[in-house]
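Entry 14. Ran structure prediction on the chain below.
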Amino acid sequence: MMSMHRRRFLRFAATAAGLAATGFAGCRPALAAAPPGKRRLVVVMLRGAVDGLNLVVPYTDPRYREMRPTIGLASPGADGGALDLDGRFGLHPALAPLLPLWRERRLAFVHACGSIDPSRSHFEAQDFMESGTPGVRGTPDGWMNRLAAAMPEPHEAIQALSLGAVRPRILAGAAPNANFALGPDAGRPQPLDRPAMAEAFDGLYSGNDPLSAAYRDGRQARRQLMADLAAEQAEADKGAPAPGGFPGTATRLARLLARDERISLAFADLGGWDTHVNQGGATGQLASRLAPLGEGLAALARGLGAALDDTVVLVMSEFGRTVHENGDKGTDHGHGNVMWVLGGRVAGGRIQGDWPGLGPADLYQGRDLAVTTDFRSVIGMVLERHMGLSDRQMAAVLPGWVPSTRLGLFTA
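Output, structure tokens:
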């Protein structure tokens, strides 16, 4: 009998084949520019629990600075101060590249937003946010996979794209999808690009069983995506390597979305937000992570051009951080946070949601920003107003969620 290790390897190879970045060999399929009106969704997950209180700063609340004497940001106008948004809240200065989108009313923030589940475990909270079923363990699939299944046929792997080497929880499920790295190593050949190995696997998975079908879907998606990537390199990079980090990845994603109408959903995740020690204020550890995030989102918006009108970018994190800074000049696992919604039809330039305040009686368990908006309410508005899902379809994508908060996230 085949060993367990060999079976696991073959199963991984079949489902992952063609989904990691490879060389540019092969025939280039015809590319179709995205037609006007095609709705797309890009989700960016900040793993590790970003500090929403230093991202969108309640600078008029006197308790903010009292509880954050070393990491709290100063008011707008002061050295290293927050960038004013609406007279009450300010943006972290490292996110300055996003201010034009705010002023153009293409960017909105939903504060005091998060999961109704009280878990402070990264693993559990991320699982609940990606499954879309907070508090329910064992949900077999992710909400973006269910969204892909709810979209019109044909359902192809290229329709839903994850920007990484491993398929994330949010895209786990029966609907086909592809994972594809867009970083500086995107063009590096992988083992399955070797003709002999590719031929061997093609023969091994030539049947009609589900595993063979998954293998072929993955191979086809990779060929299509690599052709797109090769074309955009030739046309835009002019031989120069793409910049490293998220800004370069976001720029490449924008080009792929603008070039290939088949990509409707995309997901990216970024780590490094668990700032227990030496978090910093206007500068420091958190600021150094926010800067490329802001640059990348701005590059994505610029790269989409007119297609931004039909695209929504949703930024989320599993939970927030404690209101009080800790003894190590950082913050610990909290509760309420902030979600970002960016796009052409977003009713931006506003802080949305019910702000609970930072008074002693307002804090969750006496230590955290309270959650007044269920994160599924934000997703639900995107599904309804942007993706055009029916009530029945929304119930399938977000099972168990009962709409209770109506957010004015989109223009008429």
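The chain is about 35% helix and 10% strand. Will compare against last week's run tomorrow.
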